[in-house]
Design goal:
By secondary structure, the protein is an alpha+beta fold. It contains four helices and eight strands; from the N terminus they run E-E-H-E-H-E-H-H-E-E-E-E. The chain starts with a strand and ends in a 6-residue tail after the last strand. Keywords: Signal.
Length: about 230
């Protein structure tokens, strides 16, 4: 299942983004994003691109001014390696893996990795405009029956703590049908842990008490509106 996202006119790029998974909370989550991995995949992610991905994601998360429990995202090499293994297959679909969330992006416009990342995150974040106004702020556009903002909600899912991404250039990126195959395409995948878009849950806790007012005991510190754990504390 796919949705088309219209980008601003100044972005000369052909984009197709697929729906992220919607999780049942009962699904097992045994993946450890902090553990070393035996994978040695070329993820296409330089140190500068890693910093850019983290900065843009965390900036978008800080923009949720009513969120009191938004965690800061940190990089996971293990997630990045898993994403790298997936994009190397040049098959534009989601893994059937309940251990992490996925946002996918593809483009047949040859550009820099920096532009690819920027365009992808713009496309995903624009899905917030698919949210219908609600007096309570309830977000109901990512569920089993409605999936028009699932990339956006995964980006701002408060309990997610780790991010890992990969980029690959595909001579032919396979779609669901041959008509949807895309030649000379760029394939970007970002993985998130713990995964967002959990059924019956909201992306974050809304509060009038301010950002970081609802940080968990495991992430009690505040980094400019985002909850985290200060590792240097005694």
């Amino acid at each position: 299942m796919k949705i088309m996202v219209m980008l601003p006119r100044q972005l000369p790029v052909t984009v197709l983004v697929m729906l992220v998974q919607v999780w049942d909370r009962s699904l097992a989550q045994s993946f450890d994003p902090t553990m070393p991995t035996n994978l040695t995949v070329d993820t296409g992610i330089s140190e500068d691109i890693k910093i850019l991905l983290l900065r843009l994601h965390n900036d978008y998360r800080r923009d949720e001014r009513l969120a009191g429990d938004m965690n800061r995202l940190d990089w996971s090499t293990a997630l990045s390696q898993e994403a790298g293994r997936w994009v190397k297959g040049c098959d534009f679909k989601h893994q059937n893996n309940p251990q992490w969330g996925e946002n996918l992006y593809r483009s047949n416009f040859k550009t820099t990795p920096e532009s690819t990342v920027d365009n992808a995150l713009i496309a995903w974040h624009l899905e917030q405009y698919n949210i219908m106004p609600s007096p309570t702020g309830f977000i109901d556009c990512c569920s089993e029956n409605k999936t028009t903002c699932c990339h956006y909600t995964q980006m701002v899912w408060a309990s997610t703590e780790f991010l890992g991404c990969a980029i690959n250039e595909c001579a032919l990126l396979k779609g669901e049908t041959t008509e949807e195959d895309l030649p000379d395409a760029i394939f970007l995948a970002c993985y998130y842990y713990p995964p967002g878009n959990v059924l019956s849950q909201q992306p974050f806790q809304r509060t009038s008490s301010g950002q970081c007012s609802l940080c968990s005991a495991t992430n009690p510190d505040c980094d400019n509106g985002l909850c985290y754990f200060e590792t240097s504390r005694c």
